[in-house]
Amino acid sequence: MFGFGPIWPRISDRASAQRAANLASRWYILGAIFTGALALIAIFSGKDIPQSELSGEIAISSLSILDAALLGFVAYKVRKLSVGWSIAGLALFLFGLLNGASSPITLIIDFFIVFNLVGGVRASLKWRELDRLAVANDAYSPHPIEPQ
Length: 148
Fold this sequence. Notes:
The protein has 4 helices and 2 strands. The chain has one domain. The chain has a two-stranded antiparallel ribbon with strand order 1-2. By secondary structure, the chain is mainly alpha-helical. Helices cover 68% and strands 3% of the residues.
């Protein structure tokens, strides 16, 4: 299968897996910075930030700083190619999407972000597969016995 650039990159070796994981972690970092900045505004202003003026639902509160910290940690683990944290981060983002999008533009942006986060999961799975192949090749390769 061919790659679609940053949306669905081709992951065939360790370098391409690391690039895809770095791209996914950048999206988590961007989310952490954005959420953290809004949470700090909520903390210093003493008021929660509503999702919209009409709904009254709270989008960002002072506790959202914990969300920002979690996103930062997920970004670190995705960059380190952790399969479990890549899947957990994707699930966290998808869970956040269940709250609903406010416009078609945000749906397009979310679609783009989801594909990048799936690329991070694919990258960590490919890295794990390449590690297993390397271990299997080392276990069955003949090594000459060195005289002592």
